[in-house]
Amino acid sequence: MPAGDGTALADRLAAQWRSAGVTDVRFAADLDELADLVGGSTGPVVVSGADLVAHTAVLRHLVTSPVGPTVALVLTDPPAGGRTTVREERGQVVDAGPAHRLDGEATGIFGGAVRVGRDDLPALVAAARAAATGRLADVAAGHGDGGPRVEPPGPAVDQVFTGLTAQGVLVFAQRVRLLVAHRVDDESGLSGARAAVAEVDEDRAELRLSVKEKDDFFTTYFVSTWSPYVTKAAARLGLSPTGVTMLSVAFAVAAAALFASGGRLALVTGGVLLYLGFVLDCVDGQLARYTRNFSAWGGWLDTMADRAKEYVVYAGLGWGATAAGVRYGWALAIAAMTLQTVRHMTDAWYGVLHDEAARRPKAVGTGGGGGIGDRLNAASTKVQADTGSLSYWLKRTVVFPIGERWALIAVAAALFNQRIALLAVLTWGVLAFAYTGALRTLRARWMWVPVLDTLDATLHRDDGPLAARLPVLRRPGPLVLAVLAAFGAGALLVTALLVGADAGWLRWAVPVALLMLLLGAAGAGAAHNGPLDWLVPAALRAAEYVFAIAVGVIGQAPAWLIFGYVFVLTLHHYDLVARLEKRQPAPPLHAATLGWEGRSVLLAVVAIAGIVSIGLATLGIYLLVLFVASVVLAWFVRPARVPAGAGRSTTI
């Protein structure tokens, strides 16, 4: 069809794809030619139909989407002309095909364009070959070309997409919001779509799109209402998202220093700087989305900076509270950091569990319909869909997200003092942990989807060489053993706090707690396929942290040194979580970190030897040097060895 400006619609669309960042645009005459083009490609491929009318920004968002290697455009238009309908869960396309064949209600239609990552190209070739011969059903069943020929309905690009998803390829959904994208069948549809595109200011819409569609209450109403103006200014100044991240770190460090110094003016100023630092923390992501400047390094740095900033603020509060005469100021900071890290570990692994359940919907609910898991799942879905309601905001706020944490710290410190700020964080954190832990446990038992066995369990447990050499205890299961390890460490800490560190016999209680700790390591070789085994990494983090704190208390090490040692451990573990989210391999020097059980054995030795402070300082510095060296190797040395231009070719 003519596009209305003297060119054919397909030619106009091809020009848009080039403007969107595609390096090599080809027209495929048929599905066999498409398969040949894809088979010869060395980088990600965008496959697009010629019936798409959209803002160029929509296409650019698909090409640059950071959510995953394979991303499909999904529209809310009603199904027509044999186009493929899709069903999504948590941003993933979990089913695609005719509406009557979906395992559940359709949530949209395929938008006629899909970006396929390099690792998924063989599946794309297989889908194109199968669609060309009418044997898509065989590809879905893994039967190759042996089945009878069936002519599938609908456009060719829809057939290819259906075949791609039928092979189990993980496909993320790219929704269109504020901008316009439609698939057209005739000239009247084309005219209406072009008019809709012309009505929208593309740049203004992109700036609004830089703000997350669903965020937490404080961020939505006290940050995102004005942060886009900062984002626009940062873009005009040529700032990068990484540069803004560094500015937010500077603001947080300044706030921590003011909290440490004390005094009403310093506390109020620190609260203001903390708020502004959080605004910048939101702006870096908004700037990345607005400028489409995404990078794996930037995503990793943002994740690590968020946690480091928060814990530096805890350190400032602990220092200031101690200086103000609070006996347990540093202890409150250590407790807040430990609680928050263990919470984050459960959050990360529950997200993995939920994503795995979304990819395997038929495996969900094996406990039977009508149970508490079904009711909780239905209630959660209903609340999430009721955007803006009181129940929606309560659900998002009660879990104590980062915006609410920073707001609470800023207000409590400015109006009261450092001790109140830490106590407030701990109180809300404990309540949030209890709430989310109880509900997630019930839902996880209902889902019954193992996740730890689908990944490198040794890496994400953070096991060292000692765990590999211990006898394997398959009963009562890795989670029970990890919980027992944490219980032993907790009992040692409570005993030390109750009887006092002056009790000389306490150092000989350390080996007993260590033996219980090593029970958790003995479960490393067992299958992690229980419905709650996703909690194992969090339980092991709790065991190691609490054991290290207990050793520090028994050895009468300075509280700030104990905080520093646990802080270095959190950096190491957050690095593993960031790699989990991106499915990246282990850090370059991971083996040299000795594993959680190896580090605990060393601490037990220094406790018995009576040189705890020296041991904590030495081991902490050693781990920090390893962490920095791993970062340099992973992000600067090894990527530089990748041949220039590798994986950059994109074809339509």
From TrEMBL:
Q: Which family does it belong to?
A: Belongs to the CDP-alcohol phosphatidyltransferase class-I family.
Q: Where are the transmembrane segments?
A: 237-259, 265-283, 422-442, 479-499, 505-524, 545-568, 603-636
- Protein name as catalogued: CDP-alcohol phosphatidyltransferase family protein
| Domain DUF5941, chain residue ranges per copy | 462-637
- Record key words, sorted: Membrane, Transferase, Transmembrane, Transmembrane helix
What species is this protein from?
A: Micromonospora fiedleri
Note the PROSITE patterns from the entry. CDP_ALCOHOL_P_TRANSF
